[in-house]
Amino acid sequence: MTLRITMAQLDMLVGDIAKNTQSIIDTAIEARDEERADVVVFPELTLTGYPPEDLLLRPSLDSRIEAALEKILAEVKDIYVLIGYPRRIGGVLYNCAGVIYQGELIGEYAKQKLPNFLVFDDKRYFEAGTEAGIVDIKGVKVGLSICEDIWHPEPIAQAKAAGAELILNLNASPYHIEKMGEREILLNQRAKEVDLPIAYVNYMGAQDELVYEGGSFVVNAQGEKVMQAPWFKAGLYTIEMAIDESAEEKSTTKKITPKKSSIAPALSEEASVYQAMVLGLRDYIEKNRFKGIVLGLSGGIDSALSLAVAVDAIGADRVQAVMMPYTYTSSISLHDAEEEAKLLGVKYSVLPIESMVTAFSDVLAPEFEGYGKDTTEENLQARTRGVTLMAISNKKGYMVLTTGNKSEMAVGYATLYGDMVGGYSVLKDVFKMLVFRLCRYRNTLGYVIPERVITRPPSAELAPDQKDEDSLPSYDILDEILRLYIEEDQSAEAILATEKFDRETVYRVLRLVDVNEYKRRQAPTGVRITARGFGRDRRYPITNGWHIGE
Question: Which residue in the list 108, 111, 160, 432 is annotated as catalytic?
Fold first, then answer.
């Protein structure tokens, strides 16, 4: 006897409960008819999409959820459907997993462990459940769990004690670089603790800055991975579980053994980051119904990588690159930008900004009289470019893609209302040294970024012979200091204790991070890549008197 389980790794639209409901119905029928599944399992909060945030506080949430559940109950038969949704029970809102079969809700479970750290705010919305959720599915006692539950031993041990023979875990677990390996180690440990197989079903898609890469998988009771769905690919992934009925004669518990199935190959760090950027940008553009993307192409490495991601996300025919040269723009930059555009096949425009900058300068001359030249004039160039891009955006319905990386945004090496202008940034959480690696990775898929763009010293080209490292430490040093400070929360003295950096550099970098919080608050959203990105992860006050040191 067997139990066929289909894991539905889907991309939902947050808030569109009606559309998500129909997608669940269509997918369940497909799993029943095409996959011959006994049960189809959807991710956490499938009905609302994830994360719904303060949509959970809307007065009509309850009626919309109840209507959605009634529709699924009425239209799906002959397959067990396990879905996630928010539901108010006894006046209290829970994060629930429910099992529907033959027009009835035959079992329901409320998430017990509510994460309230980094990007998670579960305690803002939900109360924690306390009871195990055990449902009979084709004679198998199935223990239900939701996302964070699996990171703690108690909920799974409770399910085991209540008679569970198999664990199904619904997830909306967001991507960051280390997350894939962490999940596999975790499930290996958890399965061995309870001596039960676990199916881990993950959300797939992107919501604002968060990316969910799918990668649903199954481990047996020994913690060995026996099935792995692809990452960054929506679809239905089915595994067959063998039910040892002879075990039932000796014990009240059946032995469930998942049969070995296909295992998608692991991704390199560069491949996973690149795919996360592509998925994040694609979903942002499509779900917000932008016609296309426009970006400033400088001939530098950041805009080159951003352009490649844009083309891979939505196609060259919907992307426009604009070179906006000024007096300090080198002939090399002009040549390289043109080559990048040709290699990727996008529409390419050259719009010189000298006359516009001159016009601004002439108008401002009376105000500037008596003052010497400084970064004001450099920022004026960047802001002229920002105005130009936003005008194209307004006229054509294209979203402006900003191109600044995490290293620059961390220390404020960007112009507010200039090169920070835009709706989205794929490099927002990507340190500069990783930018170089990603360019080399992208060229292995097809040569689109000229070698000289990767190898020549980075420059904003806002002043004669300007180089980034005239204003900043070398990027290998800068990135490591930033990583320790931003992602590991190490103090200046703790960073100095590593004996890798000099005191002046460390204190200068940390000061730049702190005083530029106001800029980051006004920066566009972008793909979260690391375990501690700017935005939802890191919430520091703009106005504060904290002293750098210990």
Answer: 111
Q: Per-residue pLDDT tens for 276-292?
A: 999 999 999 999 999 99
Distance of CA 142 to the CA centre of its chain: 30
Do residues 340 and 332 touch, judged by C-beta distance below 8 A?
Answer: no
User: Domain holding 177: CATH number?
Assistant: 3.60.110.10
| Domain co-membership, 177 together with 242 | yes
Q: Residues comprising the binding site for L-glutamine?
A: 173, 179
CA dihedral 58, 61, 63, 65 (to 10 degrees): 170
pLDDT tens per residue across span 235-270: 999 999 999 876 555 556 789 999 999 999 999 999
- SS3 state of residue 208: coil
Same domain, 413 and 277: yes
- Report yes or no: 284 and 293 within 8 Å, Cβ to Cβ: no
Residue 178 covered by a domain: yes
Query: Would you say residue 550 lies in a domain?
Result: no
User: Number of structural domains, the chain?
Assistant: 2
Q: Is residue 147 annotated as part of the catalytic site, yes or no?
A: yes
Residues 179 and 233 in one domain: yes
Binding-site annotation: residue ranges: 173, 179, 296-303, 379, 403, 408, 519
pTM above 0.90, yes or no: yes
Q: Within 10 A of 238 (CB to CB), how many other CB atoms are there?
A: 18
User: Which residue stretches of 446-535 are H helix?
Assistant: 451-455, 468-471, 475-482, 492-496, 503-515, 517-521
Q: Are residues 260 and 301 in the same domain?
A: no
Selected catalytic residue, list 35, 44, 165, 340:
44
pLDDT in tens, 84-104: 999 999 999 999 999 999 999
Look up the CATH number of the domain holding residue 393. 3.40.50.620
Active-site residue 44, yes or no?
yes
Q: Which residue range forms the structural domain that includes residue 145? A: 2-267
Is residue 527, in this structure, part of any structural domain at all? no
Domain match, 166 and 149 both: yes
**Own/partner long-range contacts of 546-550 (Cβ < 8 Å, ≥24 apart):** 546/514, 548/491, 548/492, 548/507, 548/510, 548/511, 548/514, 549/491, 549/492, 549/493, 550/491, 550/492, 550/493, 550/494
Residue in 35, 147, 213, 428 annotated catalytic: 147
